[in-house]
Amino acid sequence: MRSETRKNTKRVPSFRKLLRTSKIKLDNKLKNKQYKQQSAAKKYRKEQKKLREAVRDAISRKPFPLEEYKKKQVGKFGKREEDEEEDALPLDMMDEDDLKLMEDLAQKASFLTRDLSSNEPVHVKKRKRESVIDKYEKVPRRMQTEPEKEVIHLLPIKDKGGIIPQTVEKPVVNVAQDEEEDTEEMEEEEDFSEEPLPVFTPEEMAAQRRQKLQERKMHIAALASAILSEPDNNIKKLKELRAMLMEQDPNVAVIVRKLVMVSLMEVFKDIVPSYKIRPLTEAEKATKVKKETQKLREFEEGLVSQYKFYLENLEQTIKDWKQRKLKKSNVISLKAYKGLAEIAVKCLCELLVALPHFNFHNNIIVLIVPLMNDASKMISELCFEAVKKLFKQDKLGYASLGVVKVISGLVRGRNYDVRPEVLKVFLHLRIKEVELQKDSEDIAPKKKFMTYKEKRKNLSRMQRKWKKAEEKLERELLEAEASESKEKKLKLHTETLNIVFVTYFRILKKAQKSPLLPAVLEGLAKFAHLINVEFFDDLLIVLHSLIASGGLSYRESLHCILSAFHILSGQGDVLNIDPMKFYTHLYKTLFSLHAGGTNGDTEIVLQCLDVMFAKRRKQVSQQRALAFLKRLSTLALHVLPNSSVGILATNRVLMQTFPKMDLLLDNESQGSGVYLPELDEPEHCNAQNTALWELHLLQRHYHPTVQKFAAHLIVGAPTEGSGALSLDLSQRPATELFEAYSMRGMTFNPPVASVTPRRKVPSHLSWFSADFLSLFCNDELMFVQKAVIRS
């Protein structure tokens, strides 16, 4: 048995040996092994079948008494009945005791397998024709006087006489003996446990833990440095480092696993090549190559396998945390799994951004995208930032297309029950004017090289020679340019945008009341100019119905307006559509802007005004422009300084774009009628009959930049001269000025200079410090200063 076990337990071949062994050789070895196993199993089944047949036949054939054999023989051989009667034993001449003894023997003699009443000789059949059953029947049997015991059938033995079955009695379990053995073992364990274990103080345990942790850190650092120094020769150490992810010491398991995760991530970022490693074909494996090439192949295969195992470990860590699943070893507690999962997510995000070209990048995308909708805020933000970085650095579009596909499937699979941030990631896609670039490329003639016939026909011999050299140089320059094909990039961007728009349109159609609607409208506002013209009418109808329904918030309605005008300002110029309803809605809701710190909607309003007036100046009437100029000037009195600066910058654009806006700078009313500020129709409010008196109040505003804009608008917004603005203010758009003068960080732009008073401040007003006074703007500061001096 020992030899058999030694044969079965062969040495497992090493990883390097498996790499060197060809696939054909491995397949042949596997086929031979399977054939041997099948033949051995077939032989064993045949022997067992023969044994079962022999036992079944022996059980079915029980010996009959002599009288029954006699009756059967009479029935079978009717012609020889008279001869048998003459040769039969005269039973009436025998004593009763002898007759009874013969009958008992006939019933008990189980070895009688032939008819004793027949006159046929015993050895009629040849020895060769004797069957297995006949040989088995000739074996003497034992009377069943003792109670039957359970038997275990073994493999039979075959000798000259035939097959001899082998059996063994099943051992009877002695319960009392087992109990005694158990008690003895328990006593031994108790004796062993009685030995005193070493007891450590908390200080000693902490020191021991620090020592173990330091040893693990040194080991990790040594392995990582060895791998980074010579990756080709130390690929086995990469496997050793990855094996430390299964650290079993409960004192240092959590920290060691975190360190190994981060170390492996940095190692892979350094040693991974700048190309994707593909598996070798059968023909490539069969061909002989140089030692350097073979070494490179082994390194690449080992690197891909270890990278795959590492990603699987990270995935399993995240799954265990999500499922609140503990391992059998219980080395790590359930609370520690969250920290491990966060480190695993960080590593995956780093690899997603750093290695978009390498193997298994799509697998990382499939892991990261669902975590964007995770309940943990930290993990979801990590995934958001990683996807944003990926979109920003993806120049060609392969990675962006993969992420967009997974996000679309996630939104549809969750029945649109995802966080709005998942769709807001689409806003960071690097896709601009794709369709316009495609049209320009189609119109522009492509450069073609002359054929041989054209050269022969149109050029001389010397010209053909120079032309050939020139074309060769141009081809080399095109190959050395190393820039991706524009057509391929255009195709990828088009496919990506199609998936984005399909996701947006599904939500507009099926989930209009979901929290994803603001993100959808914001995305449509950014990419609306890339939508096909065929969908413009339907999309504008949907946007207007959403606004008219009244179920949208103010910010959502602004996004609808912005989307509609982006559509009409791009390819929608050719359409004959009057968006008067959108103008009216914006004019009516301008006073809904928040005047406090949460004035983020002002930026969207400024974008809408820029698209509605600056880019559609030919489609806007003078009455409409005057009405918006008057209402915006009134609005600038009520909002924060940065909003006022942005609104006044928009008024400056209106006054420079539409020449007759200086009507509002004159006190005399023009035309007939009275200005109706409460009317919601900009075309019929008679704005030409009023004046911009708000600018005089804004000239006394506490913010210096607002004062400059108000003074500039009062003199008619000139582009040059004494009333012109500085280049810093005149060349910046309204949205940029709004962000530049923002007060989110509780800062004042420009900073207020502290003014020291000329006279000493009295003691009862000493709480007026310079820091407190610096919070006021110039006018208020001077007013307080004068009041202090007078007192």
Automatic annotation (TrEMBL):
<dbReference type="InterPro" id="IPR005612">
    <property type="entry name" value="CCAAT-binding_factor"/>
</dbReference>
<comment type="similarity">
    <text>Belongs to the CBF/MAK21 family.</text>
</comment>
<feature type="coiled-coil region">
    <location>
        <begin position="452"/>
        <end position="495"/>
    </location>
</feature>
<feature type="region of interest" description="Disordered">
    <location>
        <begin position="72"/>
        <end position="92"/>
    </location>
</feature>
<dbReference type="Pfam" id="PF07540">
    <property type="entry name" value="NOC3p"/>
</dbReference>
<dbReference type="Pfam" id="PF03914">
    <property type="entry name" value="CBF"/>
</dbReference>
<feature type="compositionally biased region" description="Acidic residues">
    <location>
        <begin position="82"/>
        <end position="92"/>
    </location>
</feature>
<dbReference type="InterPro" id="IPR011501">
    <property type="entry name" value="Noc3_N"/>
</dbReference>
<dbReference type="GO" id="GO:0006270">
    <property type="term" value="P:DNA replication initiation"/>
</dbReference>
<feature type="domain" description="CCAAT-binding factor">
    <location>
        <begin position="557"/>
        <end position="710"/>
    </location>
</feature>
<keyword id="KW-0539">Nucleus</keyword>
<dbReference type="GO" id="GO:0003682">
    <property type="term" value="F:chromatin binding"/>
</dbReference>
<feature type="domain" description="Nucleolar complex-associated protein 3 N-terminal">
    <location>
        <begin position="216"/>
        <end position="310"/>
    </location>
</feature>
<protein>
    <recommendedName>
        <fullName>Nucleolar complex protein 3 homolog</fullName>
    </recommendedName>
</protein>
<dbReference type="InterPro" id="IPR016024">
    <property type="entry name" value="ARM-type_fold"/>
</dbReference>
<dbReference type="GO" id="GO:0005730">
    <property type="term" value="C:nucleolus"/>
</dbReference>
<keyword id="KW-0175">Coiled coil</keyword>
<dbReference type="InterPro" id="IPR016903">
    <property type="entry name" value="Nucleolar_cplx-assoc_3"/>
</dbReference>
